[in-house]
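Re-run requested by the PI after the first attempt was lost when the workstation crashed. Everything re-entered from the original request form. Ligand of interest: nicotinamide-adenine-dinucleotide.
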Amino acid sequence: MPRDQYEFSDPTTRYPNTSPEPQQQPEPGLESRMDPKPDHGEDSYRGTGRLTGRRALITGADSGIGAAVAIAYAREGADIALAYLPDEEEDAQRIVALIEAEGRKAVTIPGDLTARNYPAALVERAVAELGGLDAIVACAGKQHWQAEITDISDDQLVDTFTVNVLSLFRLVQAALPHLEPGSTIITTASMEAYQPAPDRLDYAASKAAINNFSKGLAQQLIGRGIRVNVVAPGPTWSVLQVSAGVDPETLPGFGSSESPMGRPGQPAELAPAYVFLASHESSFVAGETLNVNGGMVTP
Ligand code: NAD
Ligand code: MG
């Protein structure tokens, strides 16, 4: 494990190839029960004031990539509102403690993104508790593998598109009146948006929709001084994978077969992309998709 995110090392061996033992949890899963545990940068992310005074709302902030982003943003000087499912309280409280250890504010607003009114309520509470909002990071996502299209239940289909796509529209609709020029919106697509795996058709299609939506929204909002960008992760070790995200039989080789680096990424390796796109060092970047996928080729 690197000393911090700036340490010089060979990227192919910077983190071990996880080769996880078979393990499975019901959705959405608890990271605290994973083996091995993902690295969120708990012991390594070093902040340098890049988001001083910012107020960020992060969905899916309890675990995985969203949790790594929350830790990084707090260490860069931001206060955070964390959104996640009520069942994930245990994971969320661990991240809250890390944010508070930085002397930053952590506001927990659990809820279900399939509920039509939750995105607006989430924004209102985040604004009230943080005294405003200038960064939205959408990291929540639903992924449930199914071998055949006929295996995808209508409930799964609707929930996948509601969590991944519809809630994003609702979140932005609610947040926009509060966002001053300089604010940033970052969404989370996937390399599945370009290279859909045959056993997650609903998920991959929703990720392509997120990428497309974000590029259109970026054009709509740039005149208001609001930048919209996308991060597209490749295979990343997180609880999503062991709670029906992928076929359990493929878990032992997770990330090592698809990624040219021969290993999965860690959430800690995704966080710097979200820091860059929120910070004003990316002031001339809008409508961009930053692929963080271990070298997989994208259009
Ligand atoms: P994760 O399980 O740690 O995070 C996903 C989060 O989504 C959960 O913690 C949960 O809080 C939230 N969520 C799911 N359903 C919800 C609902 N109904 N209401 C509210 N919140 C809900 O997994 P992760 O891998 O860190 O995923 C983060 C994002 O990265 C997702 O959008 C995922 O699609 C994307 N992504 C992950 C990978 C990967 O390999 N891990 C690859 C590409 C894209
Ligand atoms: Mg979680």
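Saved to the shared folder this time. Residues 28, 62-63, 84, 88, 91, 239 surround magnesium ion (ligand 2) (CB under 6 Å).
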